[in-house]
Amino acid sequence: MKEFFGFGGYTREPEGYMSWQHLTIVTIYMIIMVSLAIHFGKKYKNAEPIRKNKVLIVAALLIDGLELFKIVLGCIKAQDPFDWLYNLPLFLCSIQLITIPLSAFAKGRIKESALDFVAIFGLLGAVLGTYLAGNNYSAYPVLSFDNVVSGITHSISGFCALYILITEMAVMKKKNIPITFAIIFGFGIAAYVANVLVDYNYMFLMRGDGTPYDILFNLVGGHPVIYPVLVIALFIVYISAFYWIYYLIQNRKVQKNT
């Protein structure tokens, strides 16, 4: 247990990014994630909104509870009460620590916008945080506390996205689109400021750290201004593409029914 939780540092050598161990464990996460989303999605698709929402409440409590435990344990292991400064919800994936609870507990346009945001970025975050998480699987063993918690929390994000789409909880109202963009811009600015203040790499705005962002980082030679601007630009392009595809599918459904 001491080795699993990493007290005193991990003594096992990491199996490595894209090793068969890495790919096997994250595929298991994805199979469980998709299976549960389909099961609960079909079960509650035609249920009352309050019953649909209960699944999101459980997911919100799980993802935030696990992350809080991770932060507390990290401070204990580092023997530094300020270690939490390096675990702020300022990565693209960790924004879901805020938006999933908002989608479960908020009301009105805030709830609608949170549901849309989770639906848009949940699946992307699940893939980036598992299959493409070179920063984690190159540094820690596959079966270690850091990687297991990361795998579970990213899978919860993907589960919520699929569940919201299957149960049609995401309304994708055009009037809420500016809020989705505002969330990305707001967190992007906060992440960049935090990076400068604590010398970190939130939202991978400073460097790629073994993730696919390295492609973009190397493409611009690590330019300190162009690189973070292009990262945010990619998010904007992705959001725009998601909305466009969503509306295209919805329009075709309407035309088919008429």
The H-and-E topology, N to C, reads as HHHHHHHHHH
Q: Report the C-alpha radius of gyration, rounded.
A: 19 Å
Sheet of most strands: none
Number of strands: 0
Mean pLDDT: 94
Distance between the termini: 60 Å
Distinct helical segment count: 10
| Fraction of residues in β-strands | under 5%
* Class by alpha and beta content: mainly alpha
Unreliable stretches covering 5 or more consecutive residues:
none
Fraction of residues in helix: 55-70%
Shape: globular
Give structural notes:
With 258 residues, the protein is mostly helical. 69% of the residues lie in helices and 0% in strands. It contains 10 helices and no strands. It has helices spanning 2-5, 20-44, 49-78, 96-105, 108-128, 134-137, 145-166, 177-198, 213-219, 226-257. It is globular, with a radius of gyration of 19 Å. The protein starts with a helix and ends with a helix. The mean pLDDT is 94.
